[in-house]
Design brief:
alpha/beta; six-stranded parallel sheet; about 290 residues; globular; single chain
Amino acid sequence: MQAIVFDLGITKKDVVEKPINKDFVMVSPLKVLLSGIENAIFSGILWVEPNKILGSSGIVKIRDIGLEVDKGLENRDAVVLPYSKKYGGIGTEVDGIMAEKPVLPYDSIVILPEDYELKYILYGYASIALQLRKVIKGLNLLILGGGLTSYISALAAVGYANKTYIYNDEGYKLRLYGVEEVKNSDNIKFDAVFITTMRSWARIIIQNLAREGDLLILPRFLNSWPALIPSRLNVKFIEPSKFDGVFEFIDEQISEKIFKELVAESDTLEASLPTPKPGVILDAKKIFT
């Protein structure tokens, strides 16, 4: 089958079809969501094993299932989370969705309602944002990064955090009501910092500004990232996961205007990396024809 893999670059090639393990599902990709994870691979910040099938998130149709998976899920559409609690990062530590017949861990998918909207493709990032609310309530929150995780989390933090600041050194800017974009973090008084970027500048800021005992929050997209965490900080990880209220949050908080500012749509992989916006949605059918 054809697949998009990492092979000293990002390329399309023929690979052997994978067997369906007992707790996996075989799917057909419908839409692929490229984000900061694929940007990091493309730019060399994040290394993955050669011939690893890429594609951390998207919308798929379930075609076949392993022995431990409910048979009734066949032919249902689902959104793929960028992380499996059991196996690790999708499209980074285990094979991702950019193949004709990808095989994915069952715990990395969430079944979609029949009348779903395209913006539900953001489910994994929205699930992190809703979990973040419980952690930062009443605190001054500083978010470092300019991707889907950072902006959706900033949107969710308004009304829960005392103040929400975002420091984005990655180009694309999105203005959100109640979120203060800062250019110099030296004068910010924060109680918690949420690092959503894999770039090294965020680590430098934390080393210079964070005080002993400060709350450092990190999204869990890989088991192997980050490699180093300052020991003086109170660290909490938040995993993308199935979480109550995510569809409702997307419906109510991510308007069509915000969705279009967060993501672009594309027909070709070559024009999509690095992403011109925090995310790019690829039509999977056009990739493999």
